[in-house]
Amino acid sequence: MALAEATVFAVIWAIVTAIAEIVFRRIKDHSMYYTISSQGHIALSAFNFLSSWLIPIFTFMAVMVIFALVRFRAPDNTPRPSPVQTLRNKWYILLWVGVSFALNIMFWLHPTAVDLETMFANWKQQQNQHPLIVNVTARQWEWIFSYPQYGITQAVNAQGLDELELPVGRPVEFFLRSKDPFHSYDIYADVIHSFWIPAFGIKEDVIPGETRTEFLVPDHVANYETSPLVRVQCAEVCGPGHPYMEAPLSIVTAKQFSQWIAHQKSLQAQGA
């Protein structure tokens, strides 16, 4: 009887897992992602790899719980002692612990260690390609972007609102700080924010008193109208204005970026 039950369980698990994998792949390929940076593609590949392995693990647990509830229920809700009492099964325990250990080691090696090494290698190589430096300052509740290589202290759009614009194909290095540049106060008195650009696949906490960096290469021309994922959003609860702490992002051609830089310099000269 035990072998028959195990066989039924295995068949149900295989069917549910196959259906879940098919559904995941269709969602993934059609509507789930929009990635426009080299680092984002690495992160997306890692997510897809982990999901493909974790789906059968999740379905195993879900099917096990439901199968046990259905198969071993008391038909008339009257508890009865089982004729077979098993305290433990050492082979099941060894298999469970062994597989769990192997999976964790595998996930640590790939994609975690492998992809991090790829990102660091790309970073070192692209740092020699004159990356664009963007200083990002987070304050309650605003993102402020400056371009020190061009002498721009605060980039704004036609409405005077902060905006971030980047050239496609050029490495970008962000320097992230949390403070209020318009008031003098203890730098540790601000709060933690989180610099998140969904379409870039990056998120980095911005901590008072620290300067953190992010490095990436945009590889598609895009803006908020292309996808709402092309924006800067705070992903760390930082007060009542947290949901509205966002800024538009545009990825443009090199020519458009040069024109935008000239426009920003003109606005700055006018004291806008």
UniProtKB/TrEMBL annotation:
Keyword terms: Copper, Electron transport, Membrane, Metal-binding, Translocase, Transmembrane, Transmembrane helix, Transport
GO cellular component, one term: membrane
Gene Ontology biological process: ATP synthesis coupled electron transport
Catalytic reactions of this protein: 4 Fe(II)-[cytochrome c] + O2 + 8 H(+)(in) = 4 Fe(III)-[cytochrome c] + 2 H2O + 4 H(+)(out)
Domain Cytochrome oxidase subunit II copper A binding: 129-263
Annotated TM spans: 6-24, 53-70, 91-109
Membrane topology: Multi-pass membrane protein
InterPro entries membership: CcO_II (IPR045187), CcO_II-like_C (IPR002429), Copper_CuA (IPR001505), Cupredoxin (IPR008972), Cyt_c_oxidase_su2_TM_sf (IPR036257)
EC number(s) recorded for this UniProt protein: 7.1.1.9
Compartment list: Membrane
GO MF annotations, alphabetized: copper ion binding; cytochrome-c oxidase activity
Family classification: Belongs to the cytochrome c oxidase subunit 2 family.
Functional note: Subunits I and II form the functional core of the enzyme complex. Electrons originating in cytochrome c are transferred via heme a and Cu(A) to the binuclear center formed by heme a3 and Cu(B).
Stated name of the protein: cytochrome-c oxidase
Organism: Sulfobacillus benefaciens
Lineage, highest ranks first: Bacteria, Bacillati, Bacillota, Clostridia, Eubacteriales
